[in-house]
Write a structure and sequence with these properties.
Elements lengths: L7 H17 L3 H19 L6 H26 L7 H13 L8 H6 L3 H8 L4 H7 L5 H21 L6 H22 L1 H25 L4 H6 L5 H14 L8 H14 L3 H26 L14 H16 L1 H8 L1
Helix pairs in contact: 1-2, 1-7, 2-3, 3-4, 4-7, 4-8, 6-10, 8-9, 8-14, 9-10, 9-13, 9-14, 10-12, 10-13, 12-14, 12-15
Length: about 325
């Protein structure tokens, strides 16, 4: 489970307050202030007195976010002289803040040095304000930038996670890959990215909670750590498969809705093909962790087929639960 320290409460409140200010503001200046309040509230959450790695990650995160904020201010100044090009500069600064490719270089090192609770906030909550801002500034020029970043994010996230053995870096590249899908969802409509983001957040919370409760930071720990009860092992297996978009789990339905929107909106099929191919590659390193959690009982290459009644009942209930959420997603979209 995710553990909250006593001093986290105030900073979480101000973090959410900055997020609400940035999302609900109609002024670019107030919106920028909301982003800065959100940033300055998240930095203390990253710091820790136990070791130097969280402090190093906090410094890296601060420098990157400060660069994105300064670029945003520079773009607002350039809007007086270049009324058409300034939106692309704003979009690039927002892509830097979210960790989308080609500005993804900071996300895996930062996530490697922080705890699971901070990782979850960084992968989900910290992306809401920049993504909502992107949906407001789409023009023909910025749409081309958005498409390029979406394709690069999907490709980099899929290829970058193939040779990773650290679970936090695997989830970091997974976040970059899903960022490509969310950027594509922005091009479709605003409701679509909200649906995709909610499904991604729920699945990520499930995976991060299990990794945090068992303190799993490497793939080998999945083999050496006794993940009991068996229901927890099955939950990890199904959550990873859902993160990869395997039907009929919850992660499959946002991707299916995206495919339908691409077809009905007559968007580029090449773009969609790259997104689907990247999803297959990410499924490979999800399965590498999921297979270890379910099938292998020790370091020996001996399969222990755990097909008892409780695992079967749990897997059946989860498989039947996620399609029940599909009408709810459709209701939100309309």
């Amino acid at each position: 489970m995710l553990v909250l320290k006593p001093h986290h409460g105030l900073f979480l409140i101000t973090l959410l307050a900055g997020l609400l200010i940035a999302v609900s503001s109609s002024s670019w200046f107030i919106l920028w202030m909301g982003l800065e309040l959100n940033l300055m509230s998240f930095i203390p959450l990253l710091s820790s007195s136990e070791n130097r790695y969280p402090a190093e990650s906090a410094l890296k995160y601060f420098l990157i976010q400060a660069l994105g904020s300064s670029s945003l201010l520079m773009a607002s100044t350039l809007s007086l002289f270049m009324s058409k090009a300034w939106t692309s500069i704003v979009l690039l600064s927002l892509l830097l803040k979210t960790g989308a490719a080609p500005f993804h270089f900071w996300l895996p090192p930062v996530m490697q040095g922080i705890d699971w609770f901070q990782c979850f906030i960084l992968m989900t909550i910290q992306k809401i304000a920049p993504i909502s801002m992107m949906s407001l500034i789409l023009t023909n020029l910025s749409s081309l930038t958005l498409i390029s970043s979406s394709i690069l994010s999907a490709t980099v996230g899929a290829l970058g996670g193939l040779n990773q053995t650290l679970t936090r870096k695997i989830l970091a590249y997974s976040s970059i890959n899903h960022m490509g899908w969310m950027l594509a969802a922005i091009s479709v409509n605003e409701q679509m990215w909200a649906i995709y983001f909610m499904a991604y957040s729920l699945i990520t919370l499930s995976v991060v909670s299990i990794f945090s409760s068992k303190q799993i930071f490497h793939i080998n720990q999945v083999l050496t750590t006794n993940i009991y009860p068996q229901t927890t092992k099955m939950m990890l297996f199904l959550s990873l498969l859902s993160l990869g978009g395997v039907p009929p789990l919850l992660g499959f339905f946002p991707k299916m809705m995206m495919i339908q929107e691409f077809m009905s909106s007559q968007l580029s099929l090449l773009w969609l093909s790259i997104l689907l191919a990247s999803a297959l590659l990410t499924l490979f390193f999800y399965l590498r962790v999921a297979n270890s959690s379910l099938m292998l009982s020790s370091l020996k290459t001996k399969y222990s087929l755990q097909t008892n009644l409780s695992n079967f009942i749990l897997s059946s209930s989860l498989l039947n639960m996620s399609p029940a959420l599909y009408p709810l997603l459709l209701l939100i979209s309309y």
